[in-house]
Design the sequence.
C-alpha cells in the first residue's frame, strides 16, 4: 500500500509451483482450503480472526491473486495511494521525510462540511488540559488546548495538529518505540507498542513466519534493526464515522521467493489505539500465466472491543472484512490502470 525502497532478492521474481506458496500459507494462516483458480478468477478468501485473549484486539485475514509479477505487486502495495477512491473515505494520504520536517504535515486541512471532519475539529477545540476524547498525552492535551484557545478556526486547528504530528513523528524516528508517548487522558494510560505485541504474539505461527520483519520493527522486545529504513506516512481518513489521523511506518523484507511487508501505525488520534497490516507476496504460475499470490493480515486494537461479546463482536469482524475486501478490489483496479 505504501512506498519504500526494496532490495529484491535475485530469486524472488521467479514463479513458484502453485503448491509451494499454498503449502507455506497453510502453515501460518487460517486458510486450509485454497483454490488458486478461483483466486485467479477474482475471488478473495476472507476469514475473521479467532477471538483473542487480549480484549482490545480484533483481526482478519484475506488472500487474493493478481496477474502481475510479484515484484511489481509488492512495489505497488507500498506506493499505492488510496485517497483517489472515494468509497474508501480517505481524505488525505502523504509520505513524510526522514528526518521529517514541519512542512511535511502542513497540507492537513480541516476546512470541510463533512460530519466526520467537523467531529474531529469539534473534539479538538473541546480538548482541555485535563479532558479529551482524543488519544493524547497530558503534555499534548495542554499544548493543543492552549493552541486552539487562541484561535479555533479550522486553519488554526490544523496548524495546531501539524505541530503535534511533527513532534510525534520526530520522536519515533529518533527513538523508535521508546519515543512513542502513551495516551493518558482517555481514562487509562495506553501505549501502542504493548497493544501491538499483545495481538501479534498470540498468533504463534504467524509470529514465526514474520519474525525477521518483527525484529526490524522492535516488536519482539528487541532493539529495532539499525539498518531498517521504513517508509513514513500520515493519513486522514474516516473510522467509525469520525475523521481520524494516523502516523505509520512500513517495513519490508525481501527474501528468496517471497516479499514481506509490515505497516504499523504508531499514532492514531481517536477511535482505536493502533493497527498493523502484514503482507506476504509470492510469485506464482497458473497454467501458462504468471502472477502473484498475496496473503494479508489486519490487526486492530480498540477500546470499545473490550465491551463487545458474541454477535456484536462477530458484526464488527464482518464490517472489518467488508472494508478490507473493498480496499483489495480498489487496489486490483489500480494495478489494471497502470501504464
Sequence:
Amino acid at each position: 500500500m505504501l512506498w519504500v525502497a526494496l532490495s529484491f532478492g535475485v530469486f524472488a521474481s521467479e514463479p513458484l509451483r502453485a503448491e509451494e506458496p499454498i503449502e507455506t500459507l497453510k502453515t501460518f494462516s487460517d486458510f486450509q482450503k485454497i483454490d488458486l483458480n478461483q483466486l485467479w478468477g477474482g475471488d478473495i478468501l476472507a476469514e475473521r480472526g479467532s477471538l483473542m485473549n487480549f480484549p482490545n484486539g480484533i483481526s482478519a485475514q484475506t488472500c487474493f491473486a493478481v496477474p502481475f509479477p510479484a515484484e511489481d505487486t509488492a512495489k505497488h502495495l507500498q506506493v499505492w495511494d488510496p485517497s483517489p477512491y472515494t468509497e474508501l473515505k480517505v481524505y488525505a494520504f502523504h509520505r513524510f521525510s526522514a528526518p521529517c520536517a514541519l512542512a511535511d504535515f502542513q497540507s492537513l486541512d480541516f476546512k470541510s462540511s463533512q460530519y466526520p471532519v467537523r467531529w474531529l475539529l469539534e473534539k479538538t477545540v473541546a480538548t482541555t488540559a485535563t479532558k479529551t476524547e482524543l488519544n493524547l498525552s497530558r503534555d499534548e492535551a495542554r499544548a493543543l488546548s492552549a493552541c486552539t484557545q487562541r484561535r479555533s478556526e479550522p486553519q488554526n486547528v490544523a496548524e495546531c495538529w501539524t505541530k503535534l504530528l511533527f513532534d510525534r513523528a520526530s520522536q519515533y524516528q529518533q527513538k523508535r518505540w521508546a519515543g512513542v508517548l502513551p495516551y493518558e487522558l482517555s481514562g487509562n494510560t495506553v501505549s501502542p507498542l504493548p497493544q501491538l505485541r499483545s495481538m501479534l504474539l498470540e498468533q504463534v505461527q504467524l509470529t514465526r513466519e514474520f519474525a525477521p520483519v518483527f525484529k526490524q520493527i522492535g516488536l519482539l522486545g528487541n532493539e529495532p534493526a539499525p539498518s531498517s529504513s521504513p517508509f513514513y506516512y500520515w493519513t486522514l481518513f474516516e473510522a467509525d464515522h469520525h475523521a481520524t489521523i494516523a502516523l505509520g511506518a512500513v517495513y519490508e523484507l525481501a527474501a528468496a521467493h517471497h516479499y514481506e511487508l509490515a505497516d504499523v501505525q504508531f499514532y492514531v488520534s481517536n477511535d482505536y489505539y493502533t493497527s498493523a497490516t502484514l503482507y506476504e507476496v509470492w510469485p506464482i504460475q497458473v497454467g501458462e500465466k504468471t502472477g502473484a499470490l498475496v496473503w494479508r493480515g489486519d490487526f486492530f486494537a480498540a477500546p470499545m472491543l473490550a465491551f463487545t461479546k458474541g454477535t456484536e463482536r462477530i458484526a464488527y469482524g464482518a464490517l472489518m472484512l467488508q472494508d478490507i475486501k473493498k480496499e483489495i478490489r480498489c487496489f486490483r483496479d489500480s494495478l489494471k490502470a497502470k501504464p
Observations:
- The two ends are 18 Å apart (CA to CA).
- The longest helix spans residues 310-336.
